[in-house]
DNA sequence: CGGTATCCTTTATGATACTG
DNA sequence: CAGTATCATAAAGGATACCG
């Protein structure tokens, strides 16, 4: 086995081991993840709806970010076995809890220009 | 950079905030940037001090992240023409203002595991 | 409809050598 | 001491095709 170093270990796990802030930022660091959370909270809870309201993003990338958000426990998906299949995304309590903090970041960002 | 998705006027303020959130996360998205801000706030205000307290990071990468933080107006550098040269980094008001928000993110992160 | 598989491009990070 | 230049690698993002 090859010895693990910080450069070949899992980036995610490494960043999380560094500190909680780094870990939190890593979870939100996907390019569209914050937007996805906000849009889901606004009722855009379907794959195709998200594609409509997000800036142009490929199926592949949107799917990956949704998978990662689900893996992090920020969203859940409910698969309804209709034809065609229907999937409803919704925020978990954890996902909802981060939105007010994101709002604070937005306010901070507004003031940055002075 | 993030294009607003037009739906209706009542969403406008909300959508602007979406863009600001994305912008704020972008500023903080560098791998070591949040850590750098925190360590500077704790008095680790020299290049070599930062190297000591951060996880292993190359000169090149640390230098780049410091440059970017300065460009974003989160830190300033004071160059003192001694021999050898001395540089003091410090937080701007903007840089200091984001730290409490990062703390909230850390608390949120702590609770994520249930 | 709601994705995944595959392949490609761009960006971020990293190692090393060198400089004022 | 405090970096930058150069080159290399890793990770993220994206285009396209296809599947249940």
UniProtKB/TrEMBL annotation, chains A, B:
InterPro entries registered for this protein in UniProt: HTH_HxlR, WH-like_DNA-bd_sf, WH_DNA-bd_sf
GO molecular function: DNA binding
Name by which UniProt lists this protein: Helix-turn-helix transcriptional regulator
Organism superkingdom: Bacteria
Keyword annotations of the record: DNA-binding, Transcription, Transcription regulation
Ranges of residues in domain HTH hxlR-type: 19-114
SUPFAM superfamilies: Winged helix' DNA-binding domain (SSF46785)
Pfam families: HxlR
PANTHER family xrefs: TRANSCRIPTIONAL REGULATOR, TRANSCRIPTIONAL REGULATOR, MARR FAMILY
Keyword Endoplasmic reticulum: no
